[in-house]
Amino acid sequence: MFIRIITILSLSFLPLVLFAQINLDATIGAGLSYADAKNTEKYLPILRPNAGLSVAVPVTKNIALQTGVQYTLRGYNTVQKETFGKDKSYYLTMFRMHYISIPLMLSVKAYSDDKLQAWIDGGINYNFFLAGNMRFNYKNYKNNELVDEKGKTYIVKGWFTPSKYSPTMNSYDVNALDIALKLQLRFLYKERYSFLIFHESSLYDIRANPDNKASTVKMQYSGIALGYRLF
C-alpha cells in the first residue's frame, strides 16, 4: 500500500518536474526564401523576416526534443522575357505568403564548455499557409521605349487537396500544408543567448494546381536568428 501511494505521488509530480526542465526561447531573424523549380520559369529569391517561440524538452544531458511555433513571410519572384528585335516584353510576378510553422526536431549537443554550447537540430517542419498575394506586372517596350505597363494583385488561397494536381480555381493558389526537412546549427551562450543558422527544404510541390504538370516548385528557406531564453 505504501509503495502504491509513493508511486501515485511520484507520477503526480512528474509533469511538474518535466515542466521545470523545459526551456522556452524567443527568436527573431531573417531568411532567404526561394524555390527549387524544375521545367518552369526562373524563380528569384527574396529576403524576409521570421520570428518564433522554441520549446526544448531535455531527454538526457546531451539530447533534447524541440518543438514550438514560428512565423515566416515567404515567397519569390518570377521573371519572363520575350524579345522581338528591339521590342521586348517583361512579365514579373511577386509572391508573398504568410506561414505558421510547427517543427518537430531532435537536438544533439555537439560541443560544450563553461559559457558556450553548440547544438545540432534536425527534423520535420510543418508549414501551414495563412494568407498571401501575387502581384503581376507587365511591361512592353518598343524600340527600347516603354509603351505599355499593367499591374494587378491577386489573392492567393491555400487548399487542402488530395494531390498537387487536384483542380482549384487559380493556378497560383498553394497547398495549405507544406512539409519540409529542417537542419539547424544552434549556439547557446551562457545558457541565455542563442544564435541560429538553419536551412529548410520542402518535400512537396507547394502549388495546388500547376499549369505544367511536368514542373515542380519546392520552397527553400535559409536563415539566421537571434534568440533569448525566457526560462
Shape: elongated
In total, the number of strands is: 12
User: Which bin fits the share of residues in helices?
Assistant: under 10%
Low-confidence stretches: 5-14, 164-168
Strand order of the largest sheet: 1-3-4-5-6-10-11-12
H and E string: HEEEEEEEEEEEE
In quaternary terms, these chains amount to single chain
What characterizes the major β-sheet?
Answer: 8 strands, antiparallel, barrel
| Cα Rg | 23 Å
Query: Which structural class do the helices and strands define?
Result: mainly beta
DSSP strand (E) fraction?
over 45%
Distance between the termini: 38 Å
Give the mean pLDDT: 86
How many alpha or pi helices?
Answer: 1
Describe this structure in words.
The chain is elongated and about 70 Å long. The chain is 9% helix and 69% strand. The strands form two sheets. An eight-stranded antiparallel β-barrel has the order 1-3-4-5-6-10-11-12. A two-stranded parallel ribbon has the order 8-9. The protein contains one helix and twelve strands; from the N terminus they run H-E-E-E-E-E-E-E-E-E-E-E-E. A hairpin with a 2-residue loop joins strand 6 (116-142) and strand 7. The chain is mainly beta. The longest helix is centred in the first third of the chain and has 20 residues, at 2-21.
Core attributes:
single chain, 231 residues, mainly beta, eight-stranded antiparallel barrel, two-stranded parallel sheet, 1 helix, 12 strands, elongated
